Amino acid sequence: MTFRSPFQLVNTAGVNPQSSCFARSFASKASGSRQKQSEARKDVSTVEDPFDAPTYNIPEKPVTFTEGASYSLIILAGLAVAGAAAYGVFKELIFQPKEYKIFNKGLKRVQNDGQVKARIGSPVTGYGSESRNRAARQRIPNRIWTDEDGVEHVEVNFYIRGPHGAGKVYTEMFQDKVDKQWKFTYLIVEIKSPSPAQLMLESYVPA
């Protein structure tokens, strides 16, 4: 029996040992190259794109003293306007002017009077002047004074209208010093249509 070396056996099988070593060396280099390319791609992917950065990283332009002062003035002006409007509404609703208080009392007295309703009908409405301007109609002509005894008087006059006619009201009230209540000095209704008439609804007689 003839003994053959491993190289002879390989040669007999038709495989070149040098070629096999070369193939293993090439595969190892190719694998290493692919690993390096993969790591390079990972490194590239982890680099942040400056164009994709959040917009809040952009530094803001500093506000100058002049701009800050202008903004403060605008804010203060807005608060002042809002405060004035709120005060006007509060004063109108809570602190009703005396002339409007007397107007409301006089109109209510006229609206409840049977003579007035018989002549001009019902309901009866009241307004400050014969004008189409709403603001002018809401203004009530008045006179306020204090007599020698320290008693405050308020005099108003206004127009009234019903379904069948119209007229004008003249009234004065004073604030009693004892009970602090407003009382009529007089209340006169001058009917102008449909037929002229004058009605004395209130007349103060001292006790």
Please give a handful of descriptors for the protein shown.
207 residues; alpha+beta; Nuclear Transport Factor 2, Chain: A; six-stranded antiparallel sheet; elongated
Overview of the structural elements:
The chain starts with 5 loop residues before the first helix and ends with a strand. The protein is built from six helices and six strands; from the N terminus they run H-H-H-H-H-E-H-E-E-E-E-E. It is α+β, with helices and mostly antiparallel strands. The chain is elongated and about 75 Å long. Strands 1, 2, 3, 4, 5 and 6 form a six-stranded antiparallel sheet that branches. The longest helix is centred in the N-terminal third of the chain and has 29 residues, at 17-45. It is 44% helix and 24% strand. Among the domains are: 60-93; 98-203, Mitochondrial import inner membrane translocase subunit Tim21 (Nuclear Transport Factor 2, Chain: A).
**CATH class designation of the domain at 98-203:** Alpha Beta
What is the strand tally?
6
What percent of residues are in strands? 15-25%
| Alpha-carbon distance between the two ends | 164 Å
Low-confidence stretches: 5-23, 42-47
Shape by Cα distribution: elongated
Order of helices and strands: HHHHHEHEEEEE
> The biggest beta sheet, please?
6 strands, antiparallel
CATH fold node name of the domain at 98-203: Nuclear Transport Factor 2, Chain: A
Give the C-alpha Rg: 51 Å
- Look at the structure and name the CATH superfamily of the domain at 98-203: Mitochondrial import inner membrane translocase subunit Tim21
CATH architecture of the domain at 98-203: Roll
- Number of H/I helices: 6
Helix fraction, binned, reads: 40-55%
Subcellular location: Mitochondrion inner membrane
Pfam family, one: TIM21
Transmembrane segments: 69-90
GO biological process, one term: protein import into mitochondrial matrix
